[in-house]
Design a protein that fits this description.
The protein has 549 residues and is an alpha/beta fold. It has one domain: TIM Barrel, CATH 3.20.20. The protein is 33% helix and 23% strand. The protein contains 18 helices and 26 strands. Strands 1, 2, 3, 4, 5, 21, 22, 23 and 24 form a 9-stranded mixed sheet that branches. The protein has an 8-stranded parallel sheet with strand order 6-9-10-11-12-13-16-20, sandwiched between helices. The structure holds zinc ion (ZN).
């Protein structure tokens, strides 16, 4: 067959992974991959005057899970307010699908909207093993993005039993078996032990050395076991941690304690903003962003995504069930809680962040402090914890806040200043991100942290996922409407319009484990599980596995 070629001509290329910072050069594509050169006469796309970057990579999002489906059910009013008509795709394409928008769009609409922003890869950050089938079905219906799932293990009954029994090797093998069985990409920990404690009648755990639900297991032991497992299994992405005490005043101490507990070991701490509060429980919040980011800056083994709060509607979706119960009680908003058998929990509460609210204003400021005080953009990457801190559609506005101090300072004047005393942002932060730094925190950095060698860059061999922006003074406008988006070498957004919507690929891992695990695990399933052992693993998993890091 004739190779499919395309030369992107004359754009200013931002490809930080390959040391290219705005150089005018061509990008050559053949059969879905970037190549070093093409013969004369290959088809061209004129990118002169435009900005060329790799496709965006979302390291932490909630868009393809049973939890998202529960969230969709909770907000019929949002669907009515944001109908999403089918896009006008090119004639040779499969039929386009209509859907609904809001904070948790329907599956096809999610894929279309990610593509419309120039994002071509995304990971769902919280999937209970038992519901992995559901996530794979949703990913099948989420076009335009390659994606995968992080598998929840921090409150898992079988794992807690192994830790309590001192069976570290078996715990590691179980983590590997779970990743394989679910088609997962990474190990996720949410509020280690806290969900299990809540389900067994306690309020939560409060510290790293609390006993979990009357067992001889602590959050610290869960962190150490699963971080050790991820590293021993050489997973492409290290353990992905949502710390204990999310949202609680003074939780920065727990966050720093968790980082210190894993000192010297690779670990990713997610939506850090929600874990950077000073103050005391019951006495209110202050910013502790400076202390936490200082630790991150000086410890190369730590990476993080920010979890920026953006003003406007949001949907909190988390396996951290006790947090959602408290949020429901304090906000009076709708709430749903789903117990996922012996594996984890899930809570959902719709929310709006208002700039007249003191706590939301502090959260907004803390996220920006983390970005602006970060010394290494490769390890402090962009997220809003979509849709927890705000929709992924707010990324362009966030990028503008990072790149344009005037816009940021003007916004700062409008927020509630009550809790901002002592915050670095209120004291004035002059830093403005460059286009290259934006390319790092939205594509090159996340791809590197995920161990995705073919994503986030434009060197030969990379997947030909490319986003081309018009250069505009209004940064938010520039990033919200890419002129062209290319996925696997095909132009899917043309002149700002989605024209093609190919299926995305699945990204998953398949680590090895010792079969000696299986007899004991089968006994556990026979005794306690609602799903038989043989039926538990997801069959016919699509996509390719990503080799060990
Ligand atoms: Zn999350």
């Amino acid at each position: 067959m004739k190779p499919v070629r395309l030369r992107l001509v004359g754009g200013a290329v931002h490809d930080p992974a390959n040391g290219v910072d705005g150089e005018i050069r061509d990008v050559c594509i053949e059969d879905g991959r970037i190549v070093a050169s093409l013969p004369d006469g290959a088809p061209t796309l004129d990118a002169r005057g435009m900005v060329v970057m790799p496709g965006g990579v979302d390291i932490h999002s909630h868009f393809a899970s049973s939890s998202c489906n529960h969230a969709r059910r909770l907000i019929p009013d949002e669907h009515a307010a944001d109908p999403a008509p089918a896009p006008a795709l090119a004639e040779d394409e499969l039929p386009a699908r209509s859907g609904t928008g809001g904070t948790v769009p329907s599956t096809f609409t999610t894929g279309y909207r990610y593509a419309g922003l120039g994002y071509t890869t995304a990971f769902d950050a919280a999937v209970a093993p038992l519901t992995a089938r559901h996530s794979h079905s949703e990913l099948d219906d989420t076009p335009c993005v390659d994606g995968g799932i992080y598998v929840l293990m921090g409150n898992d009954e079988y794992l807690l039993r192994q830790i309590e029994a001192g069976e570290q090797d078996r715990a590691r093998d179980y983590a590997a078996w779970l990743l394989r069985s679910t088609g997962g990409y990474a190990i996720k920990i949410v509020n280690p032990g806290g969900v299990e404690a809540w389900k067994s009648g306690q309020r939560n755990v409060t510290g790293l050395d609390d006993a979990i639900g009357g067992r001889k297991v602590t959050p610290r032991a869960v962190l150490e076991t699963l971080a050790g497992a991820a590293n021993a299994l050489q997973l492409p992405h290290p353990v992905h941690i949502h710390c204990n005490n999310l949202g609680i005043p003074g939780n920065a101490g727990t966050t720093l304690g968790s980082m210190q507990a894993l000192s010297g070991r690779r670990a990713h701490f997610t939506h850090l903003q929600f874990h950077c509060y000073g103050g005391q429980p019951g006495q209110g919040w202050t910013s502790a962003a400076a202390q936490v980011i200082e630790y991150v800056n000086s410890h190369a083994e730590v990476s993080t995504d920010v979890g920026q709060v953006m003003f406007g509607p949001a949907m909190t979706i988390t396996a951290d069930a006790p947090v959602e119960y408290l949020l429901h009680k304090s906000s009076g908003r709708r709430w749903t809680n789903i117990d996922i058998e012996l594996e984890t929990g899930c809570g959902i509460v719709p929310l709006a962040y208002k700039d007249k609210a003191a706590v939301a204003s502090l959260q907004w400021a803390i996220g920006l402090e983390l970005f602006l005080l970060s010394a290494d953009p490769w390890r402090v990457v962009l997220s809003t914890d979509h849709p927890n801190g705000g929709s992924f559609l707010s990324y362009p506005a966030l990028i503008q806040l990072l790149m344009d101090r005037a816009v940021r300072d003007e916004r700062l004047m409008q927020v509630n200043p009550k809790l901002l005393a002592g915050s670095a942002l209120a004291d004035g932060l002059a830093r403005e991100y460059t286009l290259n730094e934006i390319a790092i925190i939205t594509r090159a950095g996340p791809a590197r942290l995920l161990g995705l060698g073919r994503k986030g860059h434009l060197g030969p061999g990379a997947d030909a996922d490319v986003t081309i922006y018009n250069r505009e003074a209004d940064i938010a406008k520039m990033f919200s409407t890419p002129r062209y988006v290319i996925k696997d070498g095909r132009v899917i957004v043309e002149e700002g319009q989605l024209r093609r919507a190919p299926a995305g690929r699945r990204l998953r891992v398949a680590p090895e484990y010792d079969d000696a695990l299986l007899p004991d695990l089968r006994r556990h399933f026979d005794a306690y599980s609602s799903v038989s052992f043989a039926n538990y693993p997801v069959q016919d998993l699509p996509g390719e596995t990503v080799p060990a890091g």
